[in-house]
Amino acid sequence: MISRDRFQLPEREKTNTRANPSLSVVAGTAEPIYGPEAIKPVSTQEALNPNYELEVDDLKWRALPYTCVETQTWYLTADDGKVALVQAIYSNVL
Amino acid sequence: MCCEYINPLYLFGMSGGLLGIFFTYRQVQVNTQFVVKIFYPDGKVHWSSAELLNQGFDDDKFSFYADDLAIELSEDKQSYKIMSQAAKDTRVNLKISKAGPGFKVGKDGLTLFGTDHKNPWGTMRHVFWPRTKVEGSIVVNGEKLDFTGKALYIMALQGMKPHHAGRFSLSSSQLDCD
Q: B60–A60: do the CB atoms touch at under 8 Å?
């Protein structure tokens, strides 16, 4: 019988340095892996809008007064084969 | 970059006392950018990224304006007009019209990050017009490129500081069913 504990990483190794070892370590922003209780995906709300309807107010810019990045992006596929990305970016750093 | 301003004000009392009043406020740094990337059928790529100045919104925040740029949602909320001369070599004049229903998951389209959902560390929001028609053109270095065709519109908000591992692949399949 193999004990489950043999496959547990020691606590100090449980950071995202394994997933992205270079950048976050160099920047000093490596964080622990928090687990599923630290995210509430939008899919948990799916039943509240079964037809996936978009309301007019949803198209308003939020332009939050704290650190955020907001974008409107259009991905174009022209009939003649050209593809383009057109994007407006609003970035706020507090 | 965020700046902290301190405005000290020193008052001298009649009896020789000194009172110092300090005002501090933090300035929020807003930057806006307009990006265009064009993939030609022959493999050539054109990239343009222009910093925008004097940005602002209309009262309802449906439309976005800056020097040499306007991205306006129409009165009927069914189309966007995108006009930009912010980059001299890439002039955009496009109209994107909704060609099907919009798409949003849930009541606010938000994914919350953090262990306390009432006070999230950050949020991620997406709303979509999965199917739209595009007409208009982009003028690249004087050459007018026609952009009649289809488009996908995504409005996204990352309500927190960016992550290093923020990478994703996007694919859009637009199928016509008769």
A: yes
What are residue B18's DSSP bridge partners?
A: B12
Q: Show residues of chain A in contact with B41, CB under 8 Å.
A: 80-82
List the Cα angle A38/A40/A42 in 5-degree steps. Answer: 155
Q: Is B57 on the interface with A (CB under 8 A)?
A: yes
Whether residue B1 and residue A93 make contact (CB cut-off 8 A), yes or no, is yes
Q: List the structure tokens of B14.
A: 């009649």
**What is the model's pTM?**
0.78
Residue A3's Cβ-side half-sphere holds a number of Cα atoms within 13 Å equal to 3
Contact between A38 and B146 using a beta-carbon 8 Å cutoff: no
DSSP string computed for B96-115: EEE-S--B-STTT-EEEESS
What's the ipTM?
Answer: 0.81
Series of mean pLDDT values for 10-residue runs along chain B (178 residues): 49 54 63 96 97 96 98 97 97 97 96 91 94 97 97 94 66 70
